[in-house]
Specification:
The complex is a heterodimer of chains A (113) and B (112).
Chain A lengths: L4 E3 L2 E5 L4 E6 L6 E7 L5 E8 L4 E4 L2 E6 L4 E6 L8 E11 L2 E6 L3 E6 L1
Parallel strand pairs in A: 2-11
Antiparallel strand pairs in A: 1-3, 3-8, 4-5, 4-9, 6-7, 7-8, 9-10, 9-11
Chain B lengths: L4 E3 L2 E4 L5 E6 L6 E8 L3 E9 L2 E5 L6 E5 L5 E5 L8 E8 L7 E2 L3 E5 L1
Parallel strand pairs in B: 2-11
Antiparallel strand pairs in B: 1-3, 3-8, 4-5, 4-9, 5-6, 7-8, 9-10, 9-11
């Protein structure tokens, strides 16, 4: 089952605009990770934010985490056509003696030149 | 390039057959994870190994099994294949639990 639900499912913007994607989840987590996937290809790790962190930046990416609301957001500033991809949030949580990522359904971002 | 390698890239086989997917983690990573991505189920966790031992199990079918070898590479074995097993299978690795998981390029399995 998918713990994370992402909103919107699809987003189309013009180059230079900002893109915001939201993710909600249901259970306690250790951290939340965001990934990018170009059509049918591998997942590229973007950023990890731990449950005791509220905000994190990496280049043009800004991630926030609100554990009280069980939600996270990914902001891509000054978007480029090359940012066109699907973006997934994944919650990292305990599973028996190990851990696992539970993915949301993803947001399909299209950046028009 | 994440440093995680997977072979083969593509695999086409028939129903009822058995296949083996291989994964080499990033240098120094002890933890290996397997995920399945399909159109109807999305990305789902299958199983985790840490330094040769099974640690976590997800929605992995009994027809599927995995192992991690002493050199830390891992194999995912899929048997009695069905049409519904057609999917992208990803391997990911991390240095330890609750760290970044880096994904390989995936193996696209097509069952005809």
């Amino acid at each position: 089952s998918q713990q994370g639900e992402e909103d919107p499912q699809a987003l189309s913007i013009q180059e230079g605009e900002n893109a915001t994607m939201n993710c909600s989840y249901k259970t306690s987590i250790n951290n939340l990770q965001w990934y990018r996937q170009n059509s049918g290809r591998g997942l590229v790790h973007l950023i990890l934010i731990r449950s005791n962190e509220r905000e994190k930046h990496s280049g043009r990416l800004r991630v926030t985490l609100d554990t009280s609301k069980k939600s996270s957001s990914l902001l891509i500033t000054a978007s480029r056509a090359a940012d066109t991809a699907s973006y997934f949030c994944a919650t990292d949580a305990w599973n028996n003696a190990g851990n696992m990522l539970t993915f949301g359904g993803g947001t399909r971002l299209m950046v028009k030149p | 390039d994440s440093g995680v390698t997977q072979t083969p890239k593509h695999l086409i086989t028939a129903t009822g057959q058995r296949v083996t997917l291989r994964c080499s983690p990033r240098s120094g990573d002890l933890s290996v994870y397997w995920y399945q991505q399909s159109l109807d189920q999305g990305l789902q966790f299958l199983i985790q190994y840490y330094n040769g031992e099974e640690r976590a199990k997800g929605n992995i079918l009994e027809r599927f099994s995995a192992q991690q070898f002493p050199d830390l590479h891992s194999e995912l074995n899929l048997s009695s294949l069905e049409l519904g097993d057609s999917a992208l299978y990803f391997c990911a690795s991390s240095v330890a639990a609750y760290n970044e998981q880096f994904f390989g390029p995936g193996t696209r399995l097509t069952v005809l």
